[in-house]
Design brief:
Layout (H helix, E strand, L loop, with lengths): L4 E4 L2 E4 L2 H28 L3 H26 L4 H9 L6
Antiparallel strand pairs: 1-2
Length: 92
């Protein structure tokens, strides 16, 4: 996740609100995909990988919870995520 700035030439320009919202929504989609992948990998893990995927699941869930909380605090609704996914901007 970027920190609110875009590099234009040699200068940094602050992102506008819409750009920040889109980036946050894309981060939520990516975090959700990461969590789903970790859950899927856990199902087939053996030995020490079981612990690894458990930690990865917990970390991804915490990240997703934080991003959703941030989105709610900024007034971003769940419909925004759905509209991004339907516009073909889903990021894997």
């Amino acid at each position: 996740m970027d920190y609110g700035y875009i590099k234009e030439g040699k200068e940094l320009k602050e992102k506008n609100q819409k750009e920040k919202e889109i980036e946050l929504l894309l981060s939520i989609i990516n975090a959700k995909n990461d969590l789903e992948n970790a859950n899927r990998n856990y199902e087939y893990a053996e030995g020490n990988l079981i612990d690894y995927y458990l930690y990865e699941i917990k970390a991804n869930q915490s990240k997703l919870d934080y991003l959703i909380k941030t989105a709610k605090e900024n007034g971003i609704q769940g419909d925004s995520v759905k509209s991004l996914m339907f516009k073909g901007k889903r990021v894997v």
